[in-house]
Amino acid sequence: MTLTHPWLALGVLLGAVPVILHLAARRRYRIVPWAATDILAKALENQAPRVRRADRLLLAVRVLILAAAALTLARPAMPRPEPPAWAGLAPPAAVVIVDRSGSMQTGAGGRTRIAAARDRARELVAAMPAGTRASLLGMDDRALPLTAGLDADRQRLLASVDRLAASARNTELHPALALALRWLKDLSAQQKTIYLITDAQESLFTQDAAATRAVLARALPEIRLVVLPVEPLDGPSASITDLEIVTPSSPTGAPATIRVKLAGGVIRDTAVGVDLWIDGRKADHRVVKTEHGVAACLFEPVAAEPGLHQAEARLDPNAGRLDNRRYAAWYTPAAMDVLIATHAPDNSNQPSTYVYLQAALEALADTGLPWVVRPAVRPVELARALDERVWLLILADCGPLPAEAVGDISRFVERGGACWLSGGRDLDETLASLQADTSSAAAWSSVLRLGPPDTRPSSPAITSIKLHRSGPQFAGSGPIEAGPDGPLAALAAVNLLEVRPIEPATDGPWSVALRTTAGRALLLTHASHRLAILTTSLNPGTSDWPYRPALVCLVDDLARWLCRPRLVAGSVYPGLKWQEPPPAPAGRYALLTPAGQRILPAEPADCILEEPGIYRWQADQSPPDARRALTVNVDPGECRGAAWSPVQITAWLPPGGHCVIGPETVLQRSSAGPRTDTNVELWPALAALLLALLAAEAVLAHWFTPAPTAVACLEVPT
Amino acid sequence: MTLGLRFLNPETVRRLGRLQVTARGLVEGFLAGLHASPYLGASVEFAGHRSYAPGDEPRRIDWKVYGKRDRYFVKQYREETNFIAYLLVDGSASMTFRSRQTGKLEYACMLAEALSYLVLRQNDAACCGVFDCEAIAISPVGQGLSFLDQLSEILAHIEPVAGTDIARSLRQIGEYMPRRGMAVVISDFLDSAGVVDALKLLKLAGHEVVALQVLDPQELAFDISGPTRFDGLETPFSALIEPHRIRRAYLEVLHQHLHALRIGLGRAGIEYRLVGTTQPIAEMLRAYLAVRHKRRRTAP
Which residue ranges make up each domain of chain B? Predict the structure, then answer.
């Protein structure tokens, strides 16, 4: 129960006032010597018990009146019973497949895996939302239904769990999967899930894997597959949860350290092979031993040459696993110099592009990478300044470049340097200079220009550019048809983007990330370069565009894009693809167990929505049995302004570790719509009670305390 | 002449006027007076005939009867004599209760003094006794208004003590009442035990007994407000109560008590009168004696 005005609830203490007054009144009395004591004693004997009862009753009523008044003013409310996430829809359906193969007869500590599987199944059934239709299916090399189809009776399901016993047969997944899918296929349900409780022997996924994949390909993603392993497991099943550049190298060139974190509730004291790939080549291999379901390994040094490198962690493909996710991050073993070439004097009175660039580049400090911004040079000085430590070259308001500078820039790009072209109308002249160098013309195949319309050249619109989008931010995939009516043109119509070709339209492996909701920035990357080529109008004198914030945003996006560990590819199960989450409102969310209990304590340990679709749970307090698979929900009550169904997450939770709830998170809008009133107000009921108490008090007081005139005196005869 | 009144003021005495206290029954006196004597004597009230005996006055022979019976019969007449009014005042502690200017004991003394005045003024004799748990004072029988001072002296020196045993004390006082007369017992009669029996003893001794119950108005109305601790005047009783909460029950019990007293005394042929201390003495006696006189005239 919650109180709208909690401090008013202190008024409940006023309930003590009648008691205090009563006691105080009893302490102040007068003494009357009385003659008719026999009569008084008889009257008391007749009346005292009734009077005492009446007194106590009246006192209690008066105390209740004050307490009820205080509580009414405090406006208590009770949380409205949470409707199930599938309210208004068909209830969820689930099939629990329990591995009963021969390996389940084994165990440790006198407890077999089949016993653990039964416990897991019981927990699962108990945690299912009310109304869930579920079925239990035994699995070895064939499917053994333990229930007659889907049943919403939880007791019958639990009874069937007790009948579960291990066999001496092999494991084949696809017969049970096929039966489960057949049950679920034509069923109308809000959510269809197959839970697989298994000891995850390697043969489970290797035996007839093609048939299994085929079955799953038909069913997914309509039907969710959740694997719940039983313990102890001795199979090398793990997943990479994070890749972190621990110690970015200093400007002196110290090597970086890369930490790869693994988690697996299914792992116990098992060795897992981890490969580190640098720039697409396998660079290192480590075998790490997990302990209590979590492990980490460090790689160092991984690359000595300067420049930006991509590190990627993969599990050893030769080991059986449930997860083939790969994480990657950019790193550099040495300082990365940023060189700005501009014609604009940096000491003029007018704010120049250079001044704003200098300010915007401060955002690079947030990347954690060793950026060093050198003093600006003029284009003619590029030959001397563009050494091998320069990684990012910004050509700002340069206009036509000298021929020797073009050559230097071309060589710089060929060795992997990134070039950022910035400017207004003189940008065309800069580009023309660069394209004049035939040796590097291919690098300048296409240019996207950002900026207001006043800088838009009158060149023809681009007809076709294939943009391959990546990252969890995108709602779909496939090429964007740019043109007068395409999405890029739509962006241009709101003064955010202009697209024009330098050469006739060519295809290129572009990657585009629309990062900001205000649409002020666009980041364009090219596969042949490691960094985007950005063009934008940086001339504040000719634009009312929010120039400086946009520039800072650009650089900030650039830095974050570079340094964020990303899920490169992979899924929990080979062949499965993640359902990308829709954008979620930023905010703070609470993680709940299926039973509705909060996993984490209150702030600041709550789950923080770091960016759309990515929830990071960093908690020292793990659930009591952290090695168990845990399904967590986002508390719908915490999502202000939007109604969300529970987040369906299954994560292996290591004790003391962390779990990134990201790409595997599925957020679905509830059909129930936004909830406007989450509490049931209790004050009307309390007000009614108060009125009733007042009426009772009046009646009782009149009844028990007659007016002096109500009793006739004895008349003395005259 | 100084009357020696200590409780009555002249105005009250003036208002008593020519009231007369007469005995309803037979009383023994030593002077011819207003009241019927158990002895037959010279009077105008014919009592009956008896056979002539030597020594009788021949003028008392009823010759009409002689003519019919041929025997001498003498006419007898009821002798009228003076009477003794025994004024017995309860001097126990319960009589000290007062809620107004006049307390019960003071009122009882005024009542006794007024009755004494009336009795002595009509040449009857009076005797005054004070009792609580026993007889504590009793005056000699006296006559004439000059004796009033002696009676008032006894009343003025009552020192109330806790406890009332009206039966015992009246039994003791009865021993000092050799002649039949009129016994007026003035008390609050709150001691319910043996009151009627004690008064019956006086009645059986041949006295005309009048019970005057003096109560304070607050005892009758119980109109006390606010938390009050009642401490017993004669008993160790103590109770902290809100009087208005039990007023109804108190009045019910009081009513039962008074009713039982009235019924018991009535059955014993004892005259009973409830008196409030706020009633003016003169008016109260005027009304009471008028009723009493009326009864006497209508009695067979």
Answer: 10-25+83-298, 35-81
Mean pLDDT, contiguous 10-residue spans, chain B (300 residues) = 70 78 57 52 64 82 89 74 82 87 90 88 84 79 83 84 77 79 88 80 86 90 86 85 84 89 89 88 86 68
Record: contact B219-A35, CB cut-off 8 A: yes
Per residue in A76-108, pLDDT (tens digit) is: 877 666 555 444 556 788 888 898 887 777 665
Q: Environment class of residue A110 by beta-carbon count within 10 Å: exposed (0-12), middle (13-18) or buried (19+)? A: exposed
Complex ipTM over 0.90:
no
Looking at the domain that runs over A239-331, which CATH code has it been given? 2.60.40.10
pTM: 0.42
**Rounded to a whole number, what is the distance in Å from the CA of B189 to chain A's nearest CA?**
10
CATH number for the domain formed by residue range(s) B10-25+83-298: 3.40.50.410
Segments making up each domain of chain A, as ranges: 2-76+682-710, 93-229, 239-331, 346-566, 588-661
Closest listed residue to residue A546, CA positions, set A537, A558, A557: A537
Beta carbons of A633 and A597 less than 8 angstroms apart: no
Q: Is A451 helix (H, G, I), strand (E, B) or coil?
A: coil
pLDDT at B108: 92
Q: Among positive and negative, which fits the CA dihedral B110, B114, B119, B123?
A: positive
Contact status of A711 with chain B (Cβ, < 8 Å):
yes
DSSP 3-state percent helix, strand, coil across chain A (nearest 5): 30, 25, 45
> What residue of B is the nearest CA neighbor of A25?
B227
Which is more confident, A295 or A642? Answer: A295
Q: Which residues of B touch A22 (CB under 8 A)?
A: none
pLDDT band at A435 (very low <50, low <70, confident <90, very high): low
CATH superfamily of A93-229: von Willebrand factor, type A domain (3.40.50.410)
State the sign of the Cα–Cα–Cα–Cα dihedral B214, B220, B224, B227.
positive
Residues in chain B: 300
pLDDT tens-place string over residues A522-539: 333 333 332 333 333 333
> Which of A412-426, A457-471, A551-565 is modeled with the greatest confidence?
A412-426
Q: How far is B171 from chain A (nearest CA, A)?
A: 23
Sign (positive/negative) of CA torsion A282, A287, A293, A299? negative
In this complex, is the C-beta atom of B231 within 8 Å of any C-beta atom belonging to chain A?
yes
> A38 to chain B nearest CA, in Å?
8
Does B106 contact chain A (CB < 8 Å)? no
- Going from the C-alpha of A568 to that of each of A308, A565, A615, the distances in angstroms are 17, 9, 17
| Range A359-378 burial, b when 16+ CB lie within 10 A, else e | ebbebbeebebbbebeebbe
Q: Which of B226, B246, B255 sits opposite A714 (nearest CB)?
A: B255
Alpha helices in A147-190 (DSSP H): 154-162, 173-185
For residues A73 and A76, what is the distance between their CA atoms, to the nearest angstrom?
8
CA distance B1 to A614: 124
Judged by a CB distance cut-off of 8 A, whether residue B113 touches chain A is no
pLDDT at A268 over 70: no
**What secondary structure letter does DSSP report for A34?**
E
User: In a mutagenesis test of the A interface, which of B99, B102, B248 is the best target, namely the one with the most A β-carbons within 10 Å?
Assistant: B248
Residue A448: which of A382, A385, A520, A533 has the closest Cα?
A533
DSSP state, A136?
Answer: E
Which residue has better confidence, A229 or A652?
Answer: A229
Q: What is the token pair recorded at A589? A: 């969310």
Please state the φ and ψ torsions of residue A219, each to the nearest 5 degrees: -90, -35
Residue A31 with chain B: CB contacts under 8 Å: 228-229, 231
Residues facing residue A390 across a β-bridge? A337
